[in-house]
Amino acid sequence: xxxxxxxxxxxxxxxxxxxxxxxxxxxxxAAGCEKVRTYIQSGNVIFESPARKVAALLQxxxxxxxxxLGEVPEGLLRTVxxxxxxxxxxxxxxxxxxxxxxxxxxxxxxRVRNRxxxxxxxxxxxxxxxxxxxxxxxxxxxPKTNGFFGYPNNFIEKELGVSATTRNWSTVTKIxxxxxxxxxx
Length: 185
Prior knowledge:
The chain is of the alpha+beta class. It folds into two domains: 3-73, SP0830-like domains (Alpha-Beta Plaits); 90-168, no CATH class. It has five helices and nine strands. The protein has helices at 21-30, 54-69, 80-88, 153-160, 169-183, and strands spanning 3-8, 34-39, 44-48, 75-79, 102-108, 120-122, 127-132, 136-141, 164-168. Strands 6-7-8-5-9 form a five-stranded antiparallel beta sheet. The longest helix has 16 residues, at 54-69. The protein is globular. 33% of the residues are buried.
């Protein structure tokens, strides 16, 4: 049975939906998903579902989440294989030696109509979008002069004109490790 990852946008972050992951798991199970598990509190849901139209699956999940949250956070769905491919083909390997940098993946809600040339740079936030796959953008965040890091989601949405949800690279790699470990039994 196909495995999926739902990256829920704006879950358990300041000013947005606060929800327990047990309620999220229950909503996904009620929508017909199986072997539902979550990773950390930011709305990362790994599950299995019989092969069917992704749109129908998302619609069922959204309906169940509305009952739990009173609103529907956007969920960006990828197969576990798609996420594994991102990790296996990481564009961050050559940049990993830069001290203090953080790496992010912005998951896009749809393909970009006009693909920009990379890198895209936001000096104010010390961000550098270094590569793009089909519906993902890879971003390096350097420490700013005040020691804080810029968060790439708003930058990516503005530059590409598409909604996104962003995850730290370590979160993405741990989701893949979890899915692989469970697949191996």
